[in-house]
C-alpha cells in the first residue's frame, strides 16, 4: 500500500471518532464596508505571500488536510440518508457537555421545532402553498407566491457561487494558502481550493441555500407571529436589504434584475455580524435539529455542517476581498481585484479581521466550535450503525429492520443447518459417541504422521473404515464402483 495512503488510513482510524460536529455557530460572513488600517507590515506580508511564482509542493500533512476536508463532505452526505430514530443526543439530556455548550435547548425553548426545521428546506416545484407545520391549532404555511420567489433566489445563488468559484480559480496560489491560514503569522502551505467532487460541492452549497430559504421565510412572516414562532428580529439595515431583494423579484424577468439579485445576495451576509443576535446564529442552532426526529443532533453528525459553512464562509470572504469582477450595482460597490495595487494587503485586511482563530467574529467562533465538537466526539466515540426502536423489540441497521424474535431464531436455524450438512457429509452415518475428556494425546511425540488417532487407548484407529464402507454401500451417491 502507498505509504501516504497508509498514513492517511491510520490518521482516519485515529480520528474517525472525532466526528464532524459543532454547536451553535455564528455562521457566515459580513464584512465591514469601511476599510481598516493594517496592524502589520504590508511589505513584509507581500514578500511572504508572493515571494515565488511557482506553486508550493504540498507536504504529506497538507495532502491529509485536503483528504480530511473531502471526508467531511462525505460524512455530510451520509448524514442526509442516516436514520435518525434513536441517534440524537441520548434522551436529549440537556446536561450533556455538548448541549450545555451549544445551549440549543435554551435558545430554542418553546419554539415549534417542526416549523423551524421545515423552514430551512428548499422549495419544491409544486405551485401549492408549502405547509410548514401547525401553530396554535392551525396550519402555518408559506404562500405559493413566496415559494416561487425562493426558487428565483436559489437560481441567483447558483450564479453567485459560480462567480465566487471563478474568482477562486484565478486567485494566486499563495493567497489561497493565506486565506486558509487562521494564525496571524504561522503560514499554512495548504491552499483553499474547490471541493474535489461535484457531489461534495452541491451539498456544501445546499447548506447556504437552506440559510437563504430560512431567512426569507422568516422575514416574510409578519409581526408579532415572527417573534412568537421564530424569535428572530431583523435589524433595520438587514430588513431594508431583504425587502429590496424581495420586491425586485416581482418583475425579475430581465438581466438587470438578476444581476441585482446576485449582487445583493452576496452583500446580504455582510450585515449579519453581531455574535449574539445575528440571524445566522439562530439559523445554525436550527440546523442542530433533526428534521424527522425533532431531536438535537449529536456532535458527530453536526460537525460536517459546520465544515460546509466554514468552506462557504472562506469562499464568500474571498469574493468580497478580491472579486474577479467588480460589483457595481451595490450601494457601496466592490472593486475588482486588479484595481488593488496591494492584493496581499487587501486580503490581509479581511483575514486579520474575520479569519483568525480565537477572534470575536463568526469564522473564528466556528473554528473553535468545530475543534470543541471534535474533542466531544473523541470522548463519546463515533455514532453506532445500529439503532434500537423505542419498544426495544427491533433495531435497524443499514436501513434494514430486524426483529429481536427473528434474531433469537438464528442460532437454532444455524445449528439445524449445520447438523444437516454434517449428516450429509457423513453419508448418514452416526459415529459412536466419544467422550472427548477421555481422548489421549501426546504433545511430545515428534514422529512424522503421528496423531491422536493412532493412540491405541483411544480405540479409533479403524473408525475410518466404517465411513469408507458406508461410502461404498450408499447408492444415493451415484458414484461408479471401481
Plain-language structure description:
With 482 residues, this protein is mainly alpha-helical. The chain folds into three domains: 368 residues, no CATH class; 41 residues; 43 residues, no CATH class. The strands form two sheets. The protein has a three-stranded antiparallel beta sheet with strand order 3-4-5. A two-stranded antiparallel ribbon has the order 1-2. The N terminus and C terminus are likely disordered.
Largest sheet: 3 strands, antiparallel
List low-pLDDT spans.
1-55, 82-91, 252-256, 478-482
Number of domains: 3
Morphology = elongated
Task: Write the SSE topology.
Layout: H1 3-15, H2 42-49, H3 60-80, H4 97-102, H5 104-107, H6 113-118, E1 130-135, E2 138-142, H7 144-169, H8 173-180, H9 198-220, H10 225-229, H11 236-248, H12 255-267, H13 279-287, H14 299-321, H15 343-354, H16 362-380, E3 386-388, E4 394-397, E5 400-403, H17 404-425, H18 463-473
Antiparallel strand pairs: 1-2, 3-4, 4-5
Helix pairs in contact: 2-15, 3-9, 3-14, 7-9, 7-12, 7-14, 9-14, 14-16
Summarize the structure.
The chain is mostly helical and 482 residues long. It is 50% helix and 5% strand. The protein has 18 helices and five strands.
Overview features:
482 residues; two-stranded antiparallel sheet; 3 domains; 5 strands; mainly alpha; three-stranded antiparallel beta sheet; elongated; single chain
